[in-house]
Each structure stands twice: as structure tokens, then as C-alpha cells.
Design a protein that fits this description.
This protein is an alpha/beta fold. The chain has a single domain (3-122, 188-255), classed as Rossmann fold (3-Layer(aba) Sandwich). It has helices at 37-43, 68-81, 94-105, 125-141, 145-155, 163-171, 177-186, 211-220, 237-240, 242-255, and strands spanning 3-6, 9-15, 22-26, 48-52, 87-92, 110-116, 201-206, 224-230. Residues 21-241 form the AB hydrolase-1 domain.
Length: 258
């Protein structure tokens, strides 16, 4: 299996190869590289698609506490390791957090960024308390059906088959969860920094996934081309409405690859 030893981490990744411009796609919290399968399939004929597992998710081990700025450093280091001096960066939720930070960390290496279902601010205090308590139970005793249903209710519409993710959640390292949840719930707001992100960007968001906040993010970004709203979309719109997400994403990448 392909691993890269970069930035002091042992990062699992997959790379379609090819001569097209490179695109790093990054997954959401509590998922892994499999989340991006629809986008890789949609883009790979024209673009070199790379996916990676973030620290403690999927096949990448957790080495200790981290921030999303550390994840951005991992992403930039991985693409340098793969010989992609400049690339597109994009992701779902947590992956979008990382894409924004990469654009701030090294704008000269980022062609453009795409944020899918990516909130700009941390969750409100009541939600942080609710999720913090749920994940504390999960870490201590393993996931219950109620825990996983709570996750699925955020990510997917009621009729979506999330059995793949149930299996993955049952395998999720209970030791990693407290570290990962701490960073998720305590992360810094990106709102004050949006105007400093000058690379081209696109925001894609589900109608039922904080669309007003997504509008604010699109307005705050210095060079946002579009806000794409997915009708009746939840958090993981890249899976549930893959064509409606991949189409605008492909158009964005094409425009900035000329």
C-alpha cells in the first residue's frame, strides 16, 4: 500500500497518476479516502487525482495531538513528495478546512481550492456539548446504533444506505477519537482570514447543511467564483448527489488549468 513519510507522519494516499494537473481531495471527519471515490472517478480522465487519509483516519496512524494547520502541512508535504509543486486542493468538511489553510500557508503552491460542505466557524456551544458527550461515550465504550444514527442523520438523507460507513465507524480507533474530536470542536474560525485567501475558490453546499453560513463564506472569500447549492442536500453531498457536485467541480478545475 502506498505511504509517504512526510512532515513526521506516515500518510496513506492513493494517486491515479497521469499527465493532467494534480488535484488533492481530502475527506471529512469520521471518514476516509473512500468518501472521494465519486469525484476521483469523475475527474481522473483529465486530472491527476490524489486522495489521502488524515491523521488517525482510515489507514494513516495517529501520532499525537494536531491542528488543522498541521493537516495542511501534511497535505502540502505529500504533494511535494509526489512531485506536484502546484496543485488544486479540495475537500469535504474537514477536508475543506485543510484546503483553506493550505491556501494561506503556501498560496504560491495552490492553484485553487474547493470547499464542499465546509463550515467556516466552529459549531455553536450546544452542538459542541452534544457531540462532545456522544463521542466521549463512543471512545469509552465503542459506537452504539444511536451514535451512528446521529452521525448518519447529519451526513445523509433518510433513504441513503450508509452500511459502508457503519462498518468503518465500528472499526474507528477508540484511542484516536478524543484527539480528533478535541481539534474538531476547538478549531479556530476561518471567518477573519477568508479575505486573505486570494486563490480561486468554489463553495459547494447542501441545502440542509448550513447554507446561510456557506453563503457568508462565499461572500467572504477574496476570489470565490461560485456558491453551488445542492437542493435537498445534507453534509455528504459529494456521495449522495455526486453528479451535481462533480460537474461544477470539474468545470472549476478546467477553467483554472488553461
Amino acid at each position: 500500500m502506498p505511504y509517504a513519510d512526510v512532515n513526521g507522519q506516515h500518510i496513506y494516499y492513493e494517486d491515479t497518476g497521469g499527465d493532467g494537473p494534480a488535484v488533492l481531495l481530502m475527506h471529512a471527519f469520521a471518514t476516509d479516502h473512500d468518501l472521494l471515490v465519486p469525484q476521483v472517478e469523475a475527474l481522473r480522465d483529465e486530472f491527476r487525482c490524489v486522495v489521502m487519509d488524515a491523521r488517525g483516519f482510515g489507514l494513516t496512524p495517529l501520532t499525537g495531538p494536531y491542528t488543522y494547520w498541521d493537516h495542511a502541512d501534511d497535505a502540502l508535504a505529500l504533494m511535494e513528495h509526489l512531485g506536484a509543486a502546484r496543485a488544486f486542493y479540495g475537500g469535504v468538511s474537514q477536508g475543506g478546512f485543510v484546503a483553506m489553510r493550505a491556501a494561506l500557508r503556501a498560496p504560491e503552491r495552490v492553484i485553487g481550492i474547493a470547499m464542499i460542505g465546509t463550515p467556516v466557524d466552529p459549531e455553536p456551544e450546544p452542538i459542541r456539548k452534544e457531540f462532545g458527550a456522544m463521542f466521549a461515550e463512543w471512545a469509552a465504550n465503542g459506537p452504539t446504533k444511536a451514535h451512528m444514527q446521529m452521525m448518519a442523520d447529519v451526513m445523509f438523507p433518510p433513504d441513503y444506505d450508509w452500511s459502508l460507513w457503519e462498518a468503518k465507524w465500528r472499526d474507528w480507533s477508540q484511542e484516536a477519537i478524543p484527539v480528533q474530536v478535541d481539534e474538531l470542536l476547538a478549531r479556530d474560525s476561518m471567518a477573519p482570514l477568508l479575505g486573505n485567501i486570494t486563490v480561486p475558490s468554489i463553495v459547494i453546499n447542501g441545502e440542509y447543511d448550513g447554507i446561510e453560513a456557506a453563503k457568508g463564506m462565499a461572500e467572504g472569500l477574496a476570489n470565490c467564483e461560485a456558491l453551488v447549492t445542492i437542493y435537498r442536500g445534507y453534509h455528504a453531498v459529494n456521495l449522495t448527489h455526486s453528479d451535481l457536485v462533480s460537474g461544477p467541480l470539474l468545470g472549476f478545475l478546467r477553467r483554472h488549468s488553461r
